[in-house]
Amino acid sequence: MSTPNLSTPNPVTDRTKLRDARRIVVKIGSSSLTDGQGGVSVPAIDALTRVVGQLYHDGAQVVLVSSGAIAAGFRPLGLDKRPKDLATQQAAAAVGQSRLMAQYTESFWKHSISVAQVLLTAEDLMRRTQYNNAFRSLNRLLNLGVLPVVNENDAVATHEIRFGDNDRLASLVAAVIKADVLFMLSDVDALYDGPPTQPGARRIANVSAEANLAHISVGDSGSSIGTGGMVTKLQAASIATDAGIPTFLTSAENAQAAIDGEDIGTWFASRGERKSARNAWLEHMAISRGSIMIDDGAVEAITVRRRSLLPAGLIGVSGTFEAGDVVEITNSQGTVIARGLTNYSVTELPAMVGKSTRQLRDELGPEYDRVVIHTDDTVIVKQTTLTS
Ligand SMILES: Nc1ncnc2c1ncn2[C@@H]1O[C@H](COP(=O)(O)OP(=O)(O)O)[C@@H](O)[C@H]1O
Ligand SMILES: N[C@@H](CCC(=O)OP(=O)(O)O)C(=O)O
């Protein structure tokens, strides 16, 4: 099976076309996989592998982003609920992850599917070399017909470098592998206009723009097992749809009915073109090493006219960046409007502020006759209204 390329139109144009996806990221939450007493639920995993196995045998390449490591580690460690301290969470994850994988290996093998465990840290997606590495590895597994089961590497993740929720991790993995759709399975069957425990909460069937979310109230996880609740699911849907990947949310029990085209769940339409993995990386994952403040004329030039950033538009610089690093570009009020790869270091730029490239060539030499950030190395940051 070949890698979808960006010029291939996305076959998944609406909720009835889920079956047409050639590459799918399926994300499943802890509460849908564990039995409530801190053990892996074999019936739940068997049900999931039946649905995912069908997608696989219908010709799709599937990456499963599975939570549940910490929850599956409670019981073996003699705990009755999610541990609060990091070290015990790490221990629970290390124990639970291997139990989870043992069950996935057995359940998927009933459908003649080999699985691979891929544990990622936030850093793996934030640094360009590691990001390329993650892409190569996942791509190779998919092309070998293996089904990668991804989770955060919780046994070594610390608070500072942790995603903490697999919703955003799943959307980033979808961007990395250029998935056709992100399929999120939870313990709730859809997004509601208010927490579903509130009487009268209504299902939101379709989200085609952020404006559709303006009057929605979202809350934390409704269970003691899940992490992030609906807030991180909306963030994930925003990252994915912005990268041109539609997102579908429903419950694990409804997964097959959704694939069969029933009007259930919530469909988040993709916004715009499929983004190159590089641009998705630049916008959502790369670690910024500093910032460059620019004037209003330069803001207009790079955001509206899509020009490269010239030294003449600079107001100031800060941070610790070298040439080739990722920096944030802010307007004169300090709002981040774009991110890009800079051609100059933080020590070179102050002498260039406000000068034309010709002036710089005459004053500093021909190597300074270059743009600060090329338009091909710039992504405009969407001004989001999605907050908790
Ligand atoms: N507006 C909302 N619509 C739907 N669910 C919501 C909303 N606000 C909060 N939730 C809660 O989010 C929960 C799903 O998040 P979470 O527990 O983290 O699931 P998972 O383990 O699948 O990641 C639901 O069970 C529900 O209680
Ligand atoms: N990496 C963690 C998952 C954390 C998480 O996102 O959980 P969930 O909200 O249930 O998807 C684990 O495996 O326990």
Give the gist of this structure:
Helices cover 31% and strands 18% of the residues. It has 388 residues and is of the alpha/beta class.
Fold-level CATH name of the largest domain? Carbamate kinase
Q: Kindly, what is the distance between the CA atoms of the first and last residues, rounded to a whole number of angstroms?
A: 40 Å
Number of strands: 15
User: Helices and strands: which structural class?
Assistant: alpha/beta
Function: Catalyzes the transfer of a phosphate group to glutamate to form L-glutamate 5-phosphate.
GO cellular component, one term: cytosol
Protein name: Glutamate 5-kinase
Organism: Enteractinococcus helveticum
Explain the overall architecture.
With 388 residues, the protein is an alpha/beta fold. The protein contains eleven helices and 15 strands. α6 (166-176) runs parallel beside α7 (229-242). The longest helix is centred in the first third of the chain and has 24 residues, at 86-109. It is elongated and about 75 Å long. Adenosine-5'-diphosphate (ADP) binds next to β6 and α7.
Features:
alpha/beta; Carbamate kinase; Archaeosine Trna-guanine Transglycosylase, Chain: A, domain 4; 2 domains; 8-stranded mixed sheet; 15 strands; 18% strand; binds adenosine-5'-diphosphate; binds the ligand N[C@@H](CCC(=O)OP(=O)(O)O)C(=O)O
Helix/strand layout:
Layout: E1 23-28, H1 42-57, E2 61-66, H2 69-73, H3 86-109, E3 115-120, H4 122-126, H5 128-143, E4 147-152, H6 166-176, E5 181-186, E6 191-192, E7 203-204, E8 206-207, H7 229-242, E9 247-251, H8 255-259, E10 266-268, H9 277-285, E11 290-294, H10 296-303, E12 314-319, E13 326-330, E14 336-341, H11 357-364, E15 378-380
Parallel strand pairs: 1-2, 1-5, 2-4, 3-4, 5-9, 8-10, 11-13
Antiparallel strand pairs: 6-7, 9-10, 11-12, 13-14, 14-15
Bound molecules: adenosine-5'-diphosphate and ligand VHF.
The ligand N[C@@H](CCC(=O)OP(=O)(O)O)C(=O)O is lined by residues 29-31, 67-71, 93, 151-152, 154, 165-166, 226-228.
Family: Belongs to the glutamate 5-kinase family.
EC number: 2.7.2.11
Pathway: Amino-acid biosynthesis; L-proline biosynthesis; L-glutamate 5-semialdehyde from L-glutamate: step 1/2
